[in-house]
Amino acid sequence: MTAVTANDVSLSWYEASARQRIDALVDAGSFCEFIGPELREISPHLSIFDLPAQFDDGIVIGRGRLDGASVLVAAQEGRFMGGAFGEVHGAKLTGLLRAARTLKQDVVILFDSGGVRLQEANAGELAIAEIMRAVIEARRARVNVVGLIGGRAGCYGGGSLIAGTCSRLIISEQGRLSVSGPEVIETNKGIEEFDSRDRALVWRTMGGKHRYLIGGADAFVEDEALAFRQAAIAALGAKRGCNAAALEAEQKRLERRLQRFGEVEDAIEIWQTLGIDDPTDVPALPTGAFLRAANDRENADDAR
User: Fold this and answer.
1) Which of 24, 33, 29 is nearest to 59 (CA)?
2) Which residues in the chain come in under a pLDDT of 70?
């Protein structure tokens, strides 16, 4: 990996590749890749469909240092098959998480995925289950697993389920987080339910601002590598338990959210209910102004 420069840390997380994101995230020159492209661990299934393979199978894993602390890192490459999970892709992440539990080292996952590869559906679905189990086992062993979401492919399908098991999530407005993608919803429920071509609808429903406001992400950052790096350092320093009490508390939070917003049809109505001033302006707010509005809402809730 190349050394980090001032230009690297200011690059757009959304536009960057998986390897560029790792370069900008970890301390300069500290990353050591595991199972690199030279080992040619490619998918055994894609050739059946006459599809090109990639020598890292769309995910980069390894160890680096983050603000001096040793961490394990996984970065999905959204430019290869939308960062989708297949057998090898999933096995690499599962192995990294199992190593983290043994080594007692924290993990940072750079999500950029549309979900499971249709060409490897069964293997991909199994991989998702194995990864989720590995995340929980690592967290039970007091390992922090922090997810970063801000890539072109977003974080959909099985990727969103894995993200939901992480200790903490950091997201930008460009990052999208949802179990079902826009096209999946439209295909199954009709365009009247969700118009996948309506980009404003997609972003205000699945984008980072909305996810942060409803508690689906712990931190909201600018679309810059430096912002993600600083937020990751802070998240790794904030431990979050993984026990029955924590799960019960999260279940109650989700029940309250459903009771409060279950009949609401648009994110703007949710923002209005949350007490955001001028909710229709939220999509256009720059990061600083948005975070001030979000904090004002939180302070108002605390006062009540």
Assistant:
1) 33
2) 1-9, 297-304
CB 97 within 8 A of CB 104: no
76 - beta bridge partners? 59
Evaluate whether 212 touches 221 at the Cβ level (below 8 Å). no
Q: Distance between CA atoms of 40 and 55, rounded to whole angstroms?
A: 5
Whole-number pLDDT of residue 39: 82
Q: Which residue from 92, 96, 80 is spatially nearest to 46, judged by alpha carbons?
A: 80
Whole-number pLDDT of residue 299: 52
Residues 6 or more apart whose Cβ sits within 8 Å of residue 165: 132, 135, 136, 139, 145
Tokens in use for 304?
């009540």
H or E, element range at 125: helix 121-140
Q: Which residues of 101-120 are buried (b: 16+ CB within 10 A; e: fewer)?
A: beeebbbbbbbbbbbbbebb
pLDDT attached to residue 3: 41
Q: Are residues 107 and 235 in the same domain?
A: yes
Contacts 24+ apart (CB under 8 A), 285-294: 285/209, 287/173, 287/220, 287/221, 287/222, 290/209, 290/220, 291/220, 294/212, 294/213, 294/220
Q: Tell me, yes or no, whether 162 and 272 share the same domain.
A: no
Q: For position 5, what pLDDT does the model report?
A: 41
As a whole number of angstroms, the distance between CA 294 and CA 208 comes to: 13
Q: What is the pTM of this model?
A: 0.92
Reported as a single tens digit per residue, the pLDDT across 157-207 is 999 999 999 999 999 999 999 999 999 999 999 998 999 999 999 999 999
Phi, psi torsion values for 162, nearest 5 degrees: -65, -45
pLDDT of residue 44: 83
In a domain, 91, yes or no: yes
Instruction: Residue 289: give the domain boundaries.
Output: 243-304
Residue 1 in domain: no
